[in-house]
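Checked the freezer inventory, then went back to the computational side. Two predictions to log before the end of the day. The first one is the construct we discussed on Monday; recording sequence and tokens without edits.
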Amino acid sequence: MTPAELAEVVLSAAHAVFTDRGLDSSALPAQTVVERPRNPEHGDYASTLALQLSKKVGVPPRELATALAEQLGRAPGIKSVEIAGPGFLNIRLDAAAAGQLAKVIVEAGPEYGRSDTLAGQKINLEFVSANPTGPVHIGGVRWAAVGDALSRLLRATGADVGTEYYFNDAGSQIDRFARSLLAAAKGEPAPEDGYGGAYIAEIATEVRNRRPDVLELGDDAAQEVFRVEGVQLMFTEIKSSLRDFGVEFDTYFNEKDLHDRGELDQALARLREQGHVFESDGATWLRTTDFGDDKDRVLRKSNGEWTYFAADCAYYLDKRERGFDRVVIMLGADHHGYIGRMKAMAACFGDDPERNLEILIGQLVNLVRDGAPVRMSKRAGTVVTLEDLVDAIGVDASRYALARYSSDSPIDIDVELWTRATRDNPVYYVQYVAARTASVGRNAAEVGLTRGDAADFHAELLSHEKENELLKALAEFPAVVATAAELRGPHQVARYLERLAGAYHRFYDNCRILPRGDEEVTDLHRARLWLNDATRVVIANGLRLLGVSAPERM
């Protein structure tokens, strides 16, 4: 019996109680929730339904809980119901009902854990969005791992998600990039405000290979060639690096397109219509202080140039006009000050900033080796890049390590820890269960042990304490996925997988799955193989949500 099925049983019992007592059934919720009690000794599940309904129907909570307990005690699959405190219901399932979950999971396969809790939401999720002036640095890599995992979680819970990379190909940073490439091509030092690192020389060389005549042009014309060709080369490399990291975007959006299509003018016109634009000192401003910003923001400078904030406004409006109800933007720790102005901007458009715009801030990441931070990339010169991280610990470990922690917490990634083939390496600990469950399946086939038909599955035989513990852990997965999606926390999935891995190891150590020697294959062996295979399904489903592989061998 799954938690959702048990919740339906609890509601059915409540309907019966209300009917017997002549109570108003409209007070009953459309659905309820059963949870794991903090103390396993209190039962398999707990319900607070009696407490929730007591005031609505004017019945003391313990009296209502007693009636519910009596009704639930007659339901198939319920072993016992105890009343605790002011009216909590502590429910124990019989072994057969609890064990049926293994069959449910195996038959559901990749669908187990998916739900429609966020159905109807159309979400635009923007993450990474690094400027095409250098390789993706380790802070951007964190958002690549977390953002991609979050997109998977949102889709697994029914949301309509569009992932997006905002390609900043306009503005002063691109001019500095072009000047740096030109200087490298000439064999000159990088400009004082330019970019360094071996990658600049590599791209400059590639541009010269494409355009052998580039240095024969005047500096202005040459710089424009390096700007166009260099940005294209850099962005191609960024996309390739992210693809190798397992991250693909639905949309790569060019900032330059906003300018070329006149969308900044359109955004300005819309903001004027809303009455929040004013002129001062020859510049055009947006009165964001009306909505809690610490100061008003310039949209267009007195010299006629657009500001970055104006592009932000146009880009937000573009997303909303593409039909997205909620715009989610992931930004680095140095962008915390953007939250107030962006929320105010959404309000200036007439949107609800709490419903239509969500900004997530990620904290810093350090790569650590021998107890000291790795500060310099061989190629980028000043930062640790995506390639540096993957070279150090691999794709799976990188994605798991970055997604394992709440994004609002700074983290140190210890190279020694994340490359170690031991239980203290979290990704190894979880992937080892994936491999072990697959190995058990292969070994079972060699000795003639198969699960058999689902109709012949004897769930009641899964009565050992460690079997029950594992079944409880497996039952948590759908709720973990739903909560992680709702709270934008892929780390909750990682931590759950580690708890599940521990439960499986304890089951494996205490409950023999395969027959010994010439021992006859029994229904208990088959039942335990169902449980083993159910664990592999959940481990694989959870790792897939994090973009991490579930190996069959290690």
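The second is the one RB wanted added to the comparison set:
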Amino acid sequence: MKYIITILTMIAFAALMALIFLYAQIRFDAYKIIDYAPKLTTQIYDRNGELIANLFDDENRLYVDYKNIPPRLIEALVATEDTSFFEHSGINLEAIFRALVKDIHAMKMVEGASTITQQLIKNTVLSRQKTLTRKVNEAILAYTVESSLTKEQILERYFNHVYFGHGYYGVKTAAHGYFNKTLDALTLKEIAILVGLPKAPSSYDPTKHMDLSLSRANQVVNRMYALGWISEAEYTKSTLEHPMVYDETLTRNRAPYVVDEVIKSLSTEYDDIKKGGYQIYLTIDLKLQHLAHESLKVGYNGMVSRMGKDANASDLNGAMVVMENGTGNILALVGGIDYAKSSFNRATQSKRQPGSSFKPFLYQKALDWGYSPLSEIPDISRTYVNSETDEEWKPKNYENDFEGLITLKEALVHSRNLATINLLSLLGLDSVYKELKKDGFKNLSMDLSLALGSFGISPLEYSGFYSMFANYGVRTEPMLVKKIINRQGVEKVYETKTQTMTSPKQSYLMIDMMKEVVKRGTGRNAQVPGIEIAGKTGTTNSSVDAWFCGFSPDIEVITWFGNDNNSPLKKGETGGRSAAPAFKYFMTKYVELHPETTREFKIPEGVESRKIDGTTEFFTDVSPFPKTNNVKQLKEDSGLMF
């Protein structure tokens, strides 16, 4: 007797534990539906609200609240899948009995009787396999869910969770993907196609099986008409309709270099960047982004054609950054000629020597320290010896000549290396180096080669420094992300950072000098009719890097070309020949797109002018007009022989 009692006790205990486990599992599954928090696709938009890309891991899902689901869409679903949805408590007993009779007759499970609630459960927490155990769990869960959620909440979860084929999760995603439409813009036939998809997403995918998809959609329309939920006119029109269906990539990535940079810059702040359902608004203008890429291709093709049989098209590449002067907004960012061949972002990741394009920063120091554009500096050759290695360095001008004495303006206009090195020596290497470090420059050379830009910097970082010229002395940090809205609708707005580097009047002296670079100097190929352009070319030793850094009164464009393996470009491929034409192409098209753009630089208060031989020269109280004995004084101060 004791043995029997023991056995019964063990059986009862096992049954109790099984019930407890089943209850715990059902409770856990129910909470996954009740406290619904799916993975949501993050969407990236440009400054005009144009979609740039969808970001997601394994489920591409755009969420829609119940209030924004069209009533006709709800009617189509209920008519097709569960006509008594609003009357039952999760289980349709009449439908179950009808299906059971058919299953017994066929001696196997041939017909389901799932309500919308059960379908939601099946798609969310249970398998699709037709077993008795799953059906029992499904029924219990259905009652649990119905007692915790309203019918509207259940429908909202259904429409957002169900798979609609082609990689689209949720009805909003499917509407955008298949039809390029918002839910409220869908026709009845398009609604019918969507409602028919969850039953067999692959079989009814309209991008692959349009005939089957239309046939299934007509069944949905027939059912709605049979119930009297649509008129005969609506029925006729819908059955004859053949909607336009799109077959696009899931990500719809229209600016891959930009998207990569967004992910990289935001991942530390948002670890759920690809599943958190964020709306990210960028400063990028898609039209200008495409124009920047087109402009790079123009420059690239020109270089390849000039190189002829010596062209190494696989190594040759480029980058372009376009920024709004006053705001720091990045309007375009292109990190290479062809993203499909190389995703390496040369605009943000590549550290290249800026060469002579760095000279304006030294000349600005000279102006701020009392020199004027007409101050004369020695353009002579000298040999420098490294005290530690005894190695000699004898820099030269690109033209292999020297002028003796030359004004600051002419030295910059014609990019005279010797004059710039001598200027740095006159200003004091230590003093200039410390000031440039204070300004934010990194990895600078602590020797006179600093005058020729002998350090590495990315085009994006460089654009921030260059903004001090375009923005009248105020350096503006480049900004890519304008605002982020999370799934709860909370906004985070980003503001750009600025740093005053010099005064507007001193900055204008440099703007005028850089305008001359484009008018008659090394940057002549960057001229754009009808608008003032200022800028500076940059070419490093052996033409390894070719730059043009230019700006109009409204925008700045940094352009770079070079080989990925750091090998020299063909002789003669300077910044003025290679990069300036790409800049010109961009600016010419930009002015066509934006005829309202400012055409002339404004002269700030405190800038004076004087006519010298028919040419207007500018000066300030900090950079006064030179005295007549300037040359003699310079010789005495410099200690250099002429």
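For RB: The domain at 57-240 is CATH 1.10.3810.10 (Penicillin binding protein transpeptidase fold). Residues 2-34 form the longest helix (33 residues). Let me know if you want it refolded.
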